[in-house]
Design brief:
This protein has 349 residues and is an alpha/beta fold. It has 14 helices and 13 strands. Helix content is 42%, strand content 17%. Strand 12 and strand 13 form a beta hairpin. The chain binds pyridoxal-5'-phosphate. Residues 59-61, 64, 85, 138, 142, 171, 173, 199, 201, 210 line the site of pyridoxal-5'-phosphate (PLP).
Length: 349
């Protein structure tokens, strides 16, 4: 039985080209700035996202944290969406480690933040208020169905903030998925943000690593925060080598993940007892569905699918997430749909 793991695109394995590049990588001590492969990856990443410089970090969570610490001073407030990964899934790091207060504004169903709500959340001059230090956007938006924000949407939030001198950080863990779906360059999507974090270790298949990019001076300070939180790695070129392959060879194939996700969603829509959650449709590699059947509970569905070799993620309240990625072929989507149909039809004995 084939294992069809749709829990996340983080389960992707390094490609043969990555393993070879890792084996062959030229190495040095990166904390001393002497790992040529890391330096090469950082230059490449900066170029891809249209920023002056970039920094290799072990994870997206650390990349967001380091960016936030670099932008803000203790006591500042950070404006984020109430469905943001930074708010929900990063263990409160900005508050715990940065001494920052998080101020949420509601995410719209597509992950967008209403520009006026962001402006209204900015603190004015008042002895009682913490200063607003940063606004964070997320693109694609994980909890909002992997939807991609367009250039115009990004700019409608970023430009008024630029006028007010408030920096914007983009949690672009999957910004390459956004760019592929929208048929634009990442550098265009990131043109009006001050910093961007993106992950090499998700749909781009690298085993480890994320990048933070921004102005040279920002990255110089971020490098110090990376050291502070324990992210200074030594012969990290062995990992960065896979990152270079991720950026040079793996971006275009994301389109296949997106079409597989749409095929999965279309198939799921035809199954009684399943409701597709994404009001805006499936645009990138994520499908969110709710089980509305009274003959099978969410834990029963998870177990029964698992018995068929199909793994999906459970988000609570009946909501499941299925993520397509490299290693999931069109044929696997048919197999997964057959498993869903059998399980939903038969229920649980
Ligand atoms: C939108 C978003 N930001 C940040 C992260 C954190 O990345 P990591 O798991 O590498 O810490 C994730 C991980 O899934 C994510 O989906």
């Amino acid at each position: 039985m084939k294992n069809i793991d749709l829990r996340s695109d983080t389960v992707t394995l390094p490609t043969p080209a990555m393993r070879k590049a890792m084996y062959d990588a030229e190495l040095g001590d990166d904390v001393m700035g002497e790992d040529p492969t890391v330096n090469g990856l950082e230059a490449l990443a900066a170029e891809k996202v249209g920023k002056e410089a970039a920094l290799f970090v072990p994870s997206g969570t650390m990349g967001n944290l380091v960016s936030i610490l670099t932008h803000c001073r203790r006591g500042d407030e950070v404006i984020v969406g109430d469905q943001a990964h930074i708010f929900i899934f990063e263990v409160g790091a900005a508050s715990v480690l940065g001494g920052l207060q998080v101020h949420t504004v509601p995410n719209e169903p597509n992950g967008m933040l209403d520009p006026q709500s962001v402006i209204d959340a900015i603190r004015g001059e008042n002895i009682h208020f913490p200063p607003t230090g940063l606004v964070c956007l997320e693109n694609t938006h994980n909890k909002c169905g992997g939807w991609a924000l367009t250039l115009e949407q990004m700019d409608s939030v970023c430009l008024p903030l630029k006028e007010r001198g408030i920096p914007v950080h983009l949690d672009g863990a999957r910004v390459f998925n956004a760019a592929v779906a929208l048929e634009v360059e990442v550098k265009e999507l990131a043109r009006n943000v001050d910093s961007v974090m993106f992950c090499l270790s998700k749909g781009l298949c690298a085993p480890v690593g994320s990048m933070v990019a921004g102005r040279e001076e920002f990255i110089r300070r971020a490098r110090k925060y990376r050291k502070m939180v324990g992210g200074g790695m030594r012969q990290a070129g062995v990992l960065a080598a896979a990152g270079i392959v991720a950026l040079t060879e793996m971006v275009d194939q994301l389109a296949e993940d997106h079409s597989n996700a749409r095929a999965l969603a279309e198939g799921l829509m035809g199954i009684e007892g399943i409701r597709l959650e994404q009001r805006h449709g499936v645009q990138t590699n994520m499908t969110f569905l709710t089980v509305v059947a009274d003959w099978i509970t969410p834990p029963e569905l998870l177990t029964a699918l698992g018995g068929e070799g199909v793994k999906v993620g459970y988000y609570g309240k009946g909501v499941f997430r299925a993520v397509t990625h490299h290693g999931i072929e069109e044929e696997d989507i048919h197999l997964a749909l057959e498993a869903f149909r059998r399980v939903m039809k038969e229920g649980v004995a």
